[in-house]
Amino acid sequence: MTFSLIAKDTDGSIGLIVASKFFACGAVVPFVSDKVAVASQAFCNPVWGTEGRARMIAGEAAEAVLNDLVKRDEGRAIRQAHMMDVGGNFAAHTGSECVNWAGHLIQSDHSVAGNMLVGPDVLAATSEAYSNGSDLPFAERLIAAMRAGETAGGDKRGRQSAGLMIHRGQAHPWLDLRADDHADPLGELARLWDVAQERYVHFAKGMPSAEHFSGFPTRDGIDADIARAEAERIAAGRPSRSHAVELE
Questions:
Q1: Which domains does the chain have, with CATH numbers?
Q2: pTM summary value
Q3: Is 90 exceeded by the pLDDT of residue 20?
Q4: Contact, 8 vs 84, CB < 8 A?
């Protein structure tokens, strides 16, 4: 029902992006932390995600964890998953009864997996676009890679939902975007990322972290950054893509 991409950026950020002709795939597929990531899909078993994430955070290798999950699950033939451990090592499983086309592709810095796709070109195009997108910001690189996979055919049933999650060294996500029921879900993620540049990414700079429990509890600098971004957008002639409604 799905194809997804897990990657680790050069700055240590961990990202997982998913798209599907299935409602709210961004709510059921990704299990990410500051150190590891799991995508559980096809006939999704969320325990593969929660247990796999916890065990890899504790130091177990992705391959060992995945092999154990597959061995214990009587539904292994209809499951698909790929994951990345603390060391940046990837492992993947595509059950023998996942709906064709189904498969996975592992590279040194990312992995891609999908089922119910038009063919293997979807994964190849996604992987190639990610590899060639190092000049892009991480979020844009992930979205562009998935859109390349969609152009190559994507989910053979169509489009409905997508989700993007990025962690930047914290147990909580730095970015968590979803389009749960949309005619162009990856395009909607791109729009949301664009809107995030207006206020969210500036506000996020002051958010608390495990190292700085209080974060930056004043608006010093944040409002100035927001104003600067708005001025630059207006000067460039770019209208806001936000759907927000302001009440007087």
A1: 2-182 (3.60.20.10), 197-248 (no CATH)
A2: 0.95
A3: yes
A4: yes
